[in-house]
Amino acid sequence: MDKIIEIKKSRGCASLRFESGELLRVPASLLRERPVRVGETIEPLLYAEFIARRGYPHALDSAVKLLALCDRTEGELREKLGAAGYPDSCIDQVIAKLYAEELIDDEAFARSWVQSRAHKHGRSRIRHELARKGIDKETAQAAVEQLSDEDQLADAVRLTGKYLARTHGDMDRKLYQRTLAMLARHGYDADIARRALETIANGQDEADWEEADVKDLFAWKPEK
């Protein structure tokens, strides 16, 4: 038996700290079902077993509510449910149920994410975004492979045109490098970035330039 010396509540979860130093995370809904208070002496292992036994329906309800707000990946749901205090055994059951009901699909999510981000970001940034959402490398790579070099170049040219349209003065090494850095931040690789600048420098883009903004802009050429 162990005495509860602190109950710290956060959104959707509570942390029980015991006299022994043990810490137990409890989903808020389960704490309401079996409430405890500071100063009460309980058996932490038995309370943890109660959470594992009763957690599945609560965790499933939480997951469905999250999915009702927007599509989510398996990794995102695992993170949310884990943060709420549900044990891995409950989370595994929930994930299996959601896959069985076709409520989650990481491959479809990755393809949709790529399409929604493609016109303003390059492959590397999109891969990074997918990784942050818990998509594995293979799935993320397969999703970004639907982006052709031609599409990436066209998007990079549009982004570069907008960036340079806000720039006054001559193109010089500093501006050239700054523009490449901007494209790199958006996830375009070095070759696509250089080709985007060359396309605009050669007047092959479709931008409607203001003469005052681009006068002599490309008089400077980077050394080969």
Give a verbal description of the structure.
- The chain has 224 residues and is α+β, with helices and mostly antiparallel strands.
- The protein folds into three domains: 2-100, Arc Repressor Mutant, subunit A (Orthogonal Bundle), CATH 1.10.10; 106-144, Arc Repressor Mutant, subunit A, CATH 1.10.10; 149-214, no CATH class.
- The chain is 58% helix and 10% strand.
- It has helices at 28-33, 44-69, 74-83, 88-100, 106-117, 123-132, 137-144, 149-165, 173-185, 190-201, 211-214, and strands at 2-10, 13-18, 23-27, 41-42.
- Strands 3-2-1-4 form a four-stranded antiparallel β-sheet.
- The termini are far apart.
Radius of gyration: 26 Å
Structurally, the number of domains stands at 3
- Could you say what the CATH architecture of the largest domain is? Orthogonal Bundle
CATH topology of the largest domain: Arc Repressor Mutant, subunit A
The computed structural class is alpha+beta
